[in-house]
């Protein structure tokens, strides 16, 4: 157990190379606690890395809240405006109520019903990329599938889905390029304007999709409905696209994986968990202490921001043998890629189904995935994501 100081871990430049894993492994192995001075955040924040310490901060009885925000930059004096309204940054009654309302739409049963839709989307995408040309998986495959799924859940009419999928890809692509003259931020705003119209439509004509379900609850304002649609949009798109891209990366770099999945000798759910652990697309979650608390031997006063680095916990050598190695049969696999505690990802069943379908369909259609060059990584702290993954597929 050691306390280190000095680096601003909220600096996105630290995460564009694989050196990030070396740094995280060292911090996790010594169960370090690191203080980042004000810079990327106005007040500074503590960080934890080991599986044990991350689980302790996020655990259901830990004296921490998400209500001031769950990303670096927010704290008690600089709270997220959506706090107390949007599920991921609400607590107690509002959080319980929202999980109860939204949960059934993202449940395992709902996810199973969507698996045909996911399969059709994956096959459509593969039809376009199996042409022997170099394919950037991060742009052509990863984003398309989660965006289509989220449209279905929200209740976006079929005629608008292509437009919304394009907007979503642009809003969360992590790139500054313009699309239809829009920046990513403008594309996100455009989506919210579209949701506003969808909400008005559902008020006139009820439905059992997510927008219809939220609108039907008299306690929720239009603002609440909008924010929680946005929560599912962001939660469903920003992370899953990188896990899907990572699954293709695993096919390109893990010998025998394609054959094992095609032959049925690898258990698909176990492989999905390893993709989640290995890719860990949610890079950090932040909490603020609600009372005095001791973490890693250090007493923290109420109101202290603490960040849990999930990819570090998911490669903690105390919990995972050969943590950097992708092992298709890794069991047990107690990763916390979906977080831990009361805010554990509500879309985890959906994400798992999306990944399982991608793994199966690619194995079915493709005999080889060749890595054309090493991937590049997003300059980001919220997601650990691919900027570009260039591969060449050989069809079967
Ligand atoms: C929450 C990760 C896919 C919707 C979370 C959290 C994590 C996470 C770490 C917890 C945040 C916190 O503790 O503050 C992921 C990863 C995914 C994924 C790695 C894919 C690989 C999805 C999908 C959806 C979704 C597909 C919906 C379509 C949500 C929602 C929450 C959440 C609504 C808030 C839950 C709450 O606050 O109770 N996710 N997620 N996620 N996620 Fe996901």
TrEMBL record:
Molecular function as annotated in GO: cholest-4-en-3-one 26-monooxygenase activity; heme binding; iron ion binding; steroid hydroxylase activity
GO biological process assignments: cholesterol catabolic process
Keyword field contains Secreted: no
InterPro entries xrefs: Cyt_P450, Cyt_P450_B, Cyt_P450_CS, Cyt_P450_sf
Signal peptide: none
Entries under SUPFAM superfamilies matching the protein: Cytochrome P450
Keyword terms: Heme, Iron, Metal-binding, Monooxygenase, Oxidoreductase
Pfam families (alphabetical): p450 (PF00067)
Family as reported in the entry's similarity comment: Belongs to the cytochrome P450 family.
Protein name: NikQ protein
Species the sequence originates in: Amycolatopsis regifaucium
């Amino acid at each position: 157990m050691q306390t280190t100081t000095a680096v601003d871990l909220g600096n996105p430049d630290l995460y564009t190379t694989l050196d990030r894993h070396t740094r995280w492994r060292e911090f996790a192995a010594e169960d370090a606690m690191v203080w980042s001075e004000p810079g990327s955040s106005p007040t500074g924040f503590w960080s934890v890395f080991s599986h044990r310490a991350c689980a302790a901060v996020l655990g259901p009885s830990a004296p921490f809240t998400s209500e001031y925000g769950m990303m670096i930059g927010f704290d008690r004096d600089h709270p997220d405006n959506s706090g107390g309204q949007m599920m991921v940054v609400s607590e107690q009654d509002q959080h319980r109520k929202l999980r109860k309302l939204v949960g059934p739409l993202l449940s395992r049963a709902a996810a199973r019903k969507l698996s045909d839709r996911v399969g059709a989307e994956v096959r459509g995408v593969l039809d376009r990329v199996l042409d022997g040309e170099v394919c950037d998986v991060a742009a052509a495959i990863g984003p398309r599938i989660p965006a289509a799924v989220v449209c279905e859940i929200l209740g976006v009419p079929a005629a608008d889905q292509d437009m919304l999928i394009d907007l979503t890809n642009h809003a969360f692509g992590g790139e500054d390029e313009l699309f239809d003259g829009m920046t990513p931020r403008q594309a996100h705003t455009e989506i919210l304007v579209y949701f506003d119209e969808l909400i008005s439509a559902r008020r006139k004509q009820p439905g059992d999709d997510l927008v219809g379900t939220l609108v039907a609850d008299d306690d929720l304002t239009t603002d609440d409905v909008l924010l929680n649609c946005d929560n599912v949009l962001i939660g469903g798109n920003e992370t899953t696209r990188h896990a899907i891209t990572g699954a293709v990366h695993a096919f390109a770099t893990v010998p025998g994986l394609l054959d094992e999945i095609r032959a049925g000798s690898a258990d698909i759910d176990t492989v999905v968990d390893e993709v989640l652990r290995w890719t860990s697309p949610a890079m950090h979650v932040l909490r603020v202490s609600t009372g005095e608390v001791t973490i890693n031997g250090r007493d923290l006063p109420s109101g202290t921001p603490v960040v849990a680095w999930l990819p570090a916990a998911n490669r903690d050598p105390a919990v995972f043998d050969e943590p950097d190695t992708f092992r298709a049969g890794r069991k047990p696999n107690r990763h916390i890629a979906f977080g831990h505690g009361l805010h554990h990802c509500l879309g985890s069943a959906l994400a798992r189904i999306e990944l399982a379908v991608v793994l199966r369909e690619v194995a079915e259609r493709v005999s080889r995935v060749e890595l054309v060059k090493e991937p590049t990584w997003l300059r980001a702290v919220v997601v650990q994501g691919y900027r570009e993954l260039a591969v060449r597929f050989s069809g079967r």
